[in-house]
Amino acid sequence: MNEPRDHHYVPQFFLRNFATDAEKRKITTVAKNGDFAVWAERSIESLGFERDLYVFMQGKTPVSVESRINSRIETPISRSDTWAKIASGRTEALDRSDKAILYALIRHLEARTPHYHATNMELAKLAASPASAIPFSDQERIQYSEMRTAPELAKEFFTNMASSLEWTEQNFRGSGIMIMRSKIRLRSSSTPVLVIPAPPDPRLWLPLPGMTPFQYILTLTPTTMVSLVLGDFDDAFANFENEPDVSRGINRYFVGQFGHNSYTRHLIADRDGLSAEMAWAHFQTLKDSPRKIVFRRNSTA
Question: Cα separation of 193 and 215, whole Å?
């Protein structure tokens, strides 16, 4: 590979679940541009890409793992019976037999984004301070020290995680998954996996002392989301219709993520109730027409 390439970090097979046209080529999103944000219909092909995201250097040679991601992870998931249920809108049929594919999808979409790479680099900086509030182990401090001194090593670490699921296989055993079908439409984003607080439970896995219990949330379709928790939950699986207030709360998490995370460039959303949600996230509506809504971040935000 000699030329720089734009790599899509949100798979198009995933985005097509939110398409607004019969051909599944278009989607409505809010896109950020400085203090402004614009809701409009956009091409799925134009969303979620980053220059040379899945490239690392071996000596002076650039190595891309994009084909590895496609062949090892994306193609098997997109051709699975589980994904056929999701893509055809039959999410009520998801059951325990679909758990492995759902788990793989969540962990993969979590680890392959620019946000994940940036978070790792931020942790590397924090680990350099003995006064850090995060109780890094000695082994972690050594690992992050290597990442600080060799940025290409950090990029190789990231690309290996993006192109493999081996790093997360051990946590599958004991994980719990809930399919939550919604009566109202759900949001998503170009950082599709939310990590949000979970109710305290002694079975939850917490990688560091003092951590807040957490869960992973992924919107599968505009009316279905999935929650993953790691821990000692045996073979836990549930599929149910949730209360509208739960969906509204998750939507606000996505809107807040979009407003405050610079790496989340698109909020996947229809227009219903959007202006009110954006106002909650400190965006003022400047223009509202059937095909476009223009927002501006409040100067006090």
Answer: 10
